[in-house]
Amino acid sequence: MAATHWIPARLRATRALTPDIRLLEIEPSGPVAPVPPGSHLGVAVMIGERPDTRSYSLLDSGADGLYRIAVKRLPDSRGGSAYMHGLEPGARLSISGPRNHFGLTPGRPGYLLVAGGIGITPLHAMALALHGAGSPFRLLYAARTRQDLALADGLRARIGDRLETVTDEAGGRIDLAAAIAGLPPGGEAYVCGPYGMMEAARRAWAESGRPAQGLRFETFGTGGRHAAEAFTVRIPRLAREIVVPRNQTMLEALEAAGVGMIHDCRRGECGLCTVKILDADGTVDHRDVFFSDAQKAANAHLCTCVSRVVGGGITIDTADRAG
């Protein structure tokens, strides 16, 4: 994995979109080349006294020389969103990228964009790019309440009725099967949202019989089937036993304990941080979109950057080379 290149930047402005979602405009020290939709920015943060990195999807191409991100303060935050919400205009930042693991394929006959909550952020950039290119697309945007549709009004002003919104409070629900059926042959779907939404999209896409490569995901890696709780990781080869706190990922805990790990996305997408499961006396909560349902059911491996264990601990082997 290539070393991360950091550049200085300044927080130019902030604006509350909702009580828990904040828009931040970041001005890098050098010129900004327009970035493709789906790109994300790395931001250096402080979690207590510990430096760390968080990734945030860019809301647009940055063609005006600014990077825009929207950050939701999460109740189960590991500290990154709280740090970002505490920043004031003028704050000095270190940023990396942009990088793109969620690229938009050009030239398709149709596009379906499906966003849940703060998952709207990468799809916001995609919708603007597709609209600008005159490409056929629909953006379906779901949230718990009308207030949670943080970017809906601005988007509707720009893309019109290509945006469709639904909320839980109004009893709305995205009909994924119908939305997928409405795509022309060769069309693609891009989904970003909670774990349950992505699993539902995966099932609906498979049932439609469309090629698997036509469905693309991005996840913010915060949700699973179970609430987060502390658990213990045992590594017999290294004679180590490590406690993973509720507000820390397994990858972070392993790294903090000096276990050599390989990783990239930190969002359960690339699969680089996977470890072999030797035994589990708790329930493995697979939160990634890297493994298939069958692979998750086999419980042979897990993505340490997002997946957890509830009701017990886990015994693993790693690719650690430091011994």
Q: What is the fold's blueprint, element by element?
A:
Blueprint lengths: L5 E13 L2 E8 L10 E9 L2 E8 L9 E6 L7 H6 L6 E9 L10 E6 L3 H14 L3 E7 L8 H8 L3 E5 L8 H6 L6 E5 L2 H14 L6 E4 L12 E5 L4 E5 L5 H7 L17 E7 L2 E3 L7 H6 L2 E3 L4 E3 L3 E4 L6
Parallel strand pairs: 7-8, 7-10, 8-9, 10-11, 12-18
Antiparallel strand pairs: 1-2, 1-6, 2-5, 3-4, 3-6, 12-13, 14-16, 14-18, 15-17
Question: What report would you give on this structure?
Answer:
The chain has 323 residues and is of the alpha/beta class. 19% of the residues lie in helices and 34% in strands. The protein is built from seven helices and 18 strands. It has helices at 80-85, 120-133, 152-159, 176-181, 195-208, 250-256, 293-298, and strands at 6-18, 21-28, 39-47, 50-57, 67-72, 92-100, 111-116, 137-143, 163-167, 188-192, 215-218, 231-235, 240-244, 274-280, 283-285, 301-303, 308-310, 314-317. It has a six-stranded antiparallel beta sheet with strand order 4-3-6-1-2-5. A five-stranded parallel beta sheet has the order 9-8-7-10-11, sandwiched between helices. A five-stranded mixed beta sheet has the order 13-12-18-14-16. Strand 12 and strand 13 (240-244) form a beta hairpin. The mean pLDDT is 91. It comes from Methylobacterium terrae. InterPro entries: 2Fe-2S_ferredoxin-like_sf, 2Fe-2S_ferredoxin-type, 2Fe2S_fd_BS, Beta-grasp_dom_sf, Cbr1-like_FAD-bd_dom, FAD-bd_FR_type, FNR_nucleotide-bd, MRET.
